[in-house]
Design brief:
The structure is a homotetramer. By secondary structure, chain A is mostly helical. Chain A contains eleven helices and no strands. Chain A has two domains: 7-60, Arc Repressor Mutant, subunit A (Orthogonal Bundle); 63-203, Tetracycline Repressor, domain 2. Chain A binds a DNA duplex through helix 3. Chains A, B, C, D: This is TetR/AcrR family transcriptional regulator. Chains A, B, C, D: Residues 17-77 form the HTH tetR-type domain.
Chain lengths: 216, 216, 216, 216
DNA sequence: GATGAATGAGTATTCATTCAT
DNA sequence: AATGAATGAATACTCATTCAT
């Protein structure tokens, strides 16, 4: 249930991997520029470096390409995220570092994120669950780390607060990309990260309280 | 720079307004179901209650319809928002009420929000700025209210923090819709609002401080 | 159950009739030359005198054209046949005249007959029954006339013999067309008709007996 | 003029024979199911048990397969027919037995017959004569037997009558297959054979005379 | 102003055929 | 001799847009 198979006519597994790599790379470039619907299969084939006939040796329908692309993006993001999160110590300090790391990763992949936000809807009812499942898994990675902090007494949050916190920080990572037209005019990435961390951990009043806790 | 003209062949302003109303209503229903690209102009005409020929008396290109739809959505949201925000007193309590109100409004318009997220990309380079400008204006409404709170000494935030806070709450309002596949399985809307308000105002650590304020 | 509807987007019934007429005429010419599969929809549109887009305003799928063509052919044949058979008096003499008439008609439509024989298989499982039903009705016309002869004491045949006789003469009429590569080299049409009538009515031995009835 | 060569790249005659055997068997199965046009060369290769590359080592074009198939069918039919007809004694009784035998053979091969009727048109102008020639030869086998009967004084027919009689009985044998949708609902095969023999030999009036021979 | 028939560029997909390995 | 990956011409079908009535 974790990965939906996209059928290929070609048998050689290694070749399939290679050709799909070319295909996905070409497709991402194009999807970034013009979106899924405005990109033709021929353009994708050309961008991948082979003919339209060859393209269809490795997929069944155009939508398969979108699925492959989105699938690949998630895998990339998760891979990088996991790599980082395993070293997490379950302290607030370490959590902040991970969040900052994640924010920077997402900033690098902002174009891909945009594609996902805008084109995921075009996936069939069939493929969508697989994709959403991947996103849930990734949020889950953060949930685990936060839970550790709670277990270590560094944070005091119940199950539902943990989940929402994870969702929030997750979306804020993507937000840098999908609202760049607003954010990137005002903040540098590091500014953005600092400010978001502050808001995530202290909110707008917590922060006030922290400094002037006695005044109320 | 506030509104891009969509040219109509028909002169009677009142009629243009009426026909576009029908058109937009039909289009929204269809876009919700199948997205912009999968909806045909004929379908829109039929849903609007007139012929394809008539449709083209009131627009120039299919994209115009998308622009009109998105434009209308923003106007609706802003209208409701403004209506509420004018009564805002510039206190934290009143700000929280406004945010909760906004969250509920966005929950009601979640399908529209989804359409905007997924189809805005399809707007031409020409139309996009107008639309983004509207969103910036709406965020601005919240910025003003927050500024009032700061001016009243209820919050202690600088310009950049205000802006980011406004963006965050704005996105969190939309998030209930565009991440419903995850959130709406776990939270009721009111739960979601309560938890988000907590996180927005106290963060995850500010909250700790609040409860155990004495320990420091 | 007598006629399968082929959906048209155009509403004007008279126009639909007219355009389909053009379409069928063009299609028959092409099908005669190259068969259904080798004929493209564009060729049919061009032969009909309009664009590919217009073609599809009057049908849904390419197969619809084949159905329309075959349907039309049967209607034409039946029309001519019925016109003649109503005047039939129920005598052997009159039956022979009708058969000869039918043979001549089929000779005139031999290309159409060929198309039917070769392309009917290409009709979907959905459309085929309608077409076969038409052929059965046409055979039925002859069955009735033969029955009249039997009732008048001019022929002595039971139900099953009548049916088979009808089928035989029916196929022999088509045979002049679908075996022309053999028959039309040896016989003139009138020769063919005379000889077939002889064989149909007297067989190869009946004829012998007739002349020399006493010898056995 | 009796057999058209289909070029093979492979030299080993025995191998060519073997591979073509596999190919034809596979193709016949497929053509029966979906016709020539709807069957792909890949499917034929797979059904034959080898790769598409190998397939093209033994033919030049897809049409070659059709030719090979039809050629094979005719050979099969003729083989069985010849086997029987050589024993024919030149009497009416023996002729009837042969016809009945032929009818039964054709009933067994009805699917093949159907394929021939429907797909022969797809043969190029180049290959068609060879195929038609085979059919003429087969009709010729019957003509000979009938001629024997005439020579023996068992039948009184001139050249043209013999030829047409042969064609008729030949088509009636195929008819059981190509009109099965009508015939096989009404008659058993044996019934069909009996009735057709009656009609072939006595016609519809000759039969009358036979039964009431004394009345003249 | 309204209609809807006509248009044809555009697009996904298939499949016979080739050819390097 | 056998394989199967690569090719791209071909084709059914769609749909935004126009324009005569």
């Amino acid at each position: 249930m974790d990965r939906r198979e996209v059928q290929a006519s070609v048998k050689d597994e290694r070749l399939v991997e290679k050709r799909r790599d070319q295909m996905i790379k070409g497709a991402i470039t194009l999807f970034k520029q013009k979106g899924f619907h405005r990109t033709t299969t021929r353009e994708i084939a050309r961008a991948a470096g082979f003919s339209i006939g060859t393209l269809y040796e490795y997929i069944r329908k155009k939508e398969d390409i979108l699925y492959l692309v989105v699938d690949r993006m998630y895998d990339q993001i998760r891979e990088r995220l996991q790599e980082d999160l395993v070293t997490n110590l379950g302290t607030v300090e370490s959590l902040k570092l991970s969040i900052a790391y994640y924010f920077r990763e997402m900033a690098e992949m902002q174009e891909e994120v945009l594609v996902m936000y805008q084109e995921a809807k075009s996936l069939s009812k069939d493929a969508l669950p697989y994709v959403l499942n991947k996103e849930i898994q990734m949020v889950g990675l953060f949930e685990n780390v936060i839970e550790n902090c709670v277990r270590n007494g560094e944070l005091d949050l119940d199950e539902k607060q943990i989940k929402l916190f994870a969702h929030n920080l997750f979306v804020e990572g993507q937000m840098w990309g999908f609202r760049r037209w607003a954010l990137q005019k005002v903040y540098t990435l590091e500014e953005y990260i600092d400010l978001q961390l502050e808001l995530l951990f202290y909110g707008v009043q917590g922060k006030v309280n922290q400094g002037t806790g006695g005044e109320r």
